[in-house]
Amino acid sequence: MIVVAVAAWLILAVFVLIAWSRINTHKAWRVGALSLACAFSLAHQLMFSTVAEDAYISFRYALNIAEGNGPVFNAGERVEGYSNFLWVIILGLLKTVFGLEIVGSAVVLGVLCTLGCVVLAYLLVNRVVGLVRPEGPEQPAFGIAAAVLTAGASGLAAYGPSGLETPLFLLLILALCLAVTARRFVIAGVLVALATMTRPDGVVVGTIVGLWLLLAAARKRASWWAPAGYVLGALVLAVPWTAWRVIYYGYLIPNALAAKMGAPLGWQLGQGWDYLSGFTLAHEGFLLLAAAMIVALLLARPSATVPGNALARSVVWLLFAIAIGYLAFITYAGGDWMPAWRLLAPVPPLLAVASAAAYGVIRKAADTPSPRPRGRLAYLVPVLVLVVSGLSLIVSTVHPLMLSRMHAWRDKIAEMSEIGSWFADRLPAGTVISTFANGVLSYRAGPQLIMVDVLGLTDEHIARHGSRNVDLGLIGHITTDYDYVVNVRRPALAVVTGSGYSDRQRCGADPVYAGRYQVATFRRTGTDKWVAVYPLASQATSLIETLDADPRFEYVPCAT
């Protein structure tokens, strides 16, 4: 798929350079350019083709909804071990109403949402630039620039087909910005509520937009209905949703967030700085472009005589504020352990949209209206845009935390999936299993088995009363209470691996399970791959016999 993605970028580049002088005046050329940008985005996404481990947590919730157990991880346990309500509900409804397979639906929806982001980037920039001299000719070439940059964003492409809510979240943020630009404030409020129901980080974006609307009203650039309508639109969904959550789960803060809170601030900020540093090095093109446009916007004198210029510049500053504010928040929160900077995936597209809009506003305010780019520098914009998107594609292919890490992760997830299917086929319903990686293994094991997440994302006691141990090293995964796991939940089987099979038999006892549990090692039939599980000593014989009956795995006792 690397070759396909590179070919898609080359075709897009040639077409944009040829069509650039015609994009503003001929609809067919800009439709062709936008279509090729979408094709490039699709190829860029399929190059990664990795369904993320954590996505399977949401999948298990959606599966339980479809099977009538409600939005729970284990039947009968009301624990909000997800923070992407809207995504879970959509997947659950697709399974319940249409019988669609959850994993495939999530992948397709993610890809479509990413393509929707490319289209919305185009529409949003054109809307912002169109605020300047609204009676003048349209200049949609700037929207094409934003679409090309969005299609080239590495993180968005990596998590398009991941099964996670990331693309939907960005789609809603772009739609929110479009609604604000179009002065549809109630709709903007509804969209920010939907974004928050997709990711809690939506509160950050919603706060920035709300402050911008308050400032606009205070400066008499908008009526006070703007912030009022915005808040009203948000409350229409936020109030009943929050009330339902508190009644159903018993807490205001989702369990998945509670499990990730409580780390020492210094350690958290150190993790966030490292996360930001790596992101910055991998996304220099987007960041430098944004910095240049911010400087240009500051240097360009706003003209009060140009219709719509002040409003357009204000919207551009809002776009930059959302991108930078979101970047700062994720850095403060400590970032994330997943490859390709998953939590910061919305930032490059937002910077791309803001940069394209900034240049378009500056040019349209300064120039005598003309539908065609003029002068020798007319092709500087498409060349620069194509270079940034092309460099981003290179980063996708060669950076150690991008394609290679995603594919290595995919291989480990596939191995954990096999282990989960093994348990589903052999273990009786109601068997309690403790897991270190609570995603694909739990989903494949099926809702008939009870899964205990030792890191607390889906366990209320661990998340809210467990100890925080930064020595575990994974930001957001430092909460444990093994005494509770062993002595209260008493799993019949414990799985301590989160990375699939090992390359040799491992007979050492895990300290937290020593005493009540014994080691049982199995070899994947026909391979040199091994997995160690820990059956409860009192049930070890029967559990080992049950698991060994599967032809895919062969029990090999440890030498005494």
Structural descriptors:
22 helices, 8 strands, 560 residues, six-stranded mixed beta sheet, mainly alpha
Structural write-up:
With 560 residues, the protein is mostly helical. It contains 22 helices and eight strands. It has helices spanning 2-23, 27-48, 55-66, 85-98, 102-130, 141-152, 154-159, 166-181, 185-198, 202-218, 225-249, 255-258, 265-282, 284-299, 309-333, 347-366, 380-398, 403-426, 440-445, 460-465, 482-489, 540-548; strands at residues 432-435, 450-453, 467-468, 479-480, 493-495, 520-524, 530-535, 553-555. Helix 6 (141-152) packs antiparallel against helix 16 (347-366), helix 6 packs parallel to helix 17 and helix 10 (202-218) runs antiparallel to helix 11 (225-249). The two termini are 49 Å apart. The mean pLDDT is 94.
Shape: elongated
Order of SSEs, N→C?
Answer: HHHHHHHHHHHHHHHHHHEHEHEEHEEEHE
Which structural class fits the helix and strand makeup?
Answer: mainly alpha
Rg over CA atoms: 26 Å
Percent strand equals 5-15%
User: Mean of residue pLDDT?
Assistant: 94
Q: Which range best describes the helical content: under 10%, 10-25%, 25-40%, 40-55%, 55-70% or over 70%?
A: 55-70%
Regions with pLDDT < 50 over 5+ consecutive residues?
Answer: none
Number of strands: 8
